[in-house]
């Protein structure tokens, strides 16, 4: 029996690795697009989790600092196959872009990849994927006028106040509104998600998160070690970022360009390359670390910048499930889930739509890709390939 159970566990881990790696190879368009890819693959196609559990996980990741899409991917892996599943899911989703950016840093061609036609096509793919995900999630999370109004408030607030902490403020206000408006609300389809993490382990993760945040600068000063200083800078950048990967880029520039650790030209070349690869934008750290200290530096920088997100999501998941099953908290979470829809729509407009749909022909390609995904039910990787080819062809017109 133990052997059979072990085989099932290995099969689940292998399946999780293959699926997350495919997503890591094909998920272009930034964190909001990644959530769309995850929703299509894990919720719609594989049904590894229900809509409400996914929405709650997205709400938690939006509230925590760090890369939201990576934290959602880790959470899905944990729900599927425990802590090891979370690690496997993270490695699969992150590894392709890390390898690509380390190789680019080693070659440092400095080509203008950001303006390539196929890159523009992949941006249009993100439009189709995000639109499809938002429509599907909105049906479940904003079924009534009150929640539609909260989503509208979140949409306007996020677009009007485009700061790193505006998103968190919108979520807090939405939670308060939900607590007030839905405290008597009852749902018949409550689903309890099982996170196979002991609360003692979660507490250790949270203590480690705050311990490293405060101790690393001290160790840096005492030892004067270049490696400790680099680890501290990347860890702090990953720990203090609200608003996703686009926010971490200026933080990393402030950490490393003025100090002379990397030149402005090399930084901008890596920025363009990061926009060209799939997966989380936080993997920009792999490029920076490689420029500074070779491929070993790239691996250390990647580990350091993602470690806070990993510790936070593992530390929060078990308590999050307890909170969301509490009758006094359910209303607040309903408000937060509605706000997430508004936040996703805001991100869909800016930067996804504004940087992708530049002409009528772009909109035509987006409509075709959306129809392939929503109506013809084609796999996401076909959408990605079609978008890349379409974007290349558009440059010829």
From TrEMBL:
Subcellular locations according to the entry: Cell membrane
DNA damage keyword on record: no
Major localization listed first in the record, in broad terms: membrane
Membrane topology of the entry: Multi-pass membrane protein
UniProt entry tagged with the keyword Cell membrane: yes
Lineage top rank: taxon: Bacteria
Alphabetic keyword roster: Cell membrane, Membrane, Transmembrane, Transmembrane helix
Transmembrane domains' residue ranges: 83-106, 118-138, 150-181, 201-219, 226-248, 268-288, 300-320, 332-350, 357-375
Family designation: Belongs to the chromate ion transporter (CHR) (TC 2.A.51) family.
Protein name: Chromate transporter
Native source organism of the sequence: Sporosarcina psychrophila (Bacillus psychrophilus)
Record lineage: Bacteria, Bacillati, Bacillota, Bacilli, Bacillales
């Amino acid at each position: 029996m133990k052997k059979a159970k072990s085989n099932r566990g290995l099969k689940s881990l292998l399946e999780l690795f293959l699926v997350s790696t495919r997503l890591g190879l094909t998920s272009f368009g930034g964190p909001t697009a990644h959530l769309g890819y995850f929703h299509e693959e894990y919720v719609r196609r594989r049904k590894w989790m229900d809509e409400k559990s996914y929405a709650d996980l997205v709400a938690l990741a939006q509230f925590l600092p760090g890369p939201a899409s990576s934290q959602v991917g880790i959470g899905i892996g944990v729900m599927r196959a425990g802590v090891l599943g979370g690690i496997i899911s993270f490695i699969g989703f992150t590894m392709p872009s890390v390898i690509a950016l380390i190789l680019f840093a080693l070659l440092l061609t400095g080509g203008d990849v950001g303006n390539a036609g196929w890159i523009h096509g992949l941006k249009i793919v993100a439009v189709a994927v995000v639109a499809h995900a938002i429509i599907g999630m909105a049906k479940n999370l904003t079924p009534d006028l009150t929640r539609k109004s909260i989503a509208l408030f979140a949409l306007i607030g996020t677009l009007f106040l485009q700061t790193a902490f505006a998103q968190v403020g919108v979520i807090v206000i939405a939670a308060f509104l939900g607590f007030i408006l839905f405290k008597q609300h009852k749902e018949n389809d409550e689903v309890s998600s099982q996170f196979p993490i002991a609360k003692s382990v979660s507490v250790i993760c949270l203590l480690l998160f705050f311990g490293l945040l405060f101790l690393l600068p001290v160790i840096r000063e005492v030892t004067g070690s270049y490696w400790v200083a680099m680890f501290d800078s990347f860890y702090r950048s990953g720990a203090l970022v609200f608003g996703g990967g686009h926010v971490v880029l200026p933080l990393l520039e402030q950490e490393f360009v003025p100090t002379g650790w990397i030149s402005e030209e090399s930084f901008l070349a890596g920025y363009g390359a990061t926009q060209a690869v799939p997966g989380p934008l936080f993997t920009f750290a792999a490029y920076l670390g490689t420029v500074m200290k070779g491929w070993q530096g790239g691996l250390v920088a990647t580990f350091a910048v993602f470690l806070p997100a990993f510790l936070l999501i593992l530390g929060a998941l078990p308590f999050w499930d307890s909170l969301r099953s509490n009758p006094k908290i359910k209303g607040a979470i309903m408000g937060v889930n509605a706000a997430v829809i508004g936040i996703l729509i805001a991100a869909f407009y800016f930067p996804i739509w504004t940087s992708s749909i530049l002409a009528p022909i772009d909109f035509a390609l987006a409509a075709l890709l959306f129809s392939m995904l929503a109506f013809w039910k084609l796999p996401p990787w076909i959408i990605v390939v079609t978008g890349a080819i379409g974007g290349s062809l558009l440059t010829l017109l």
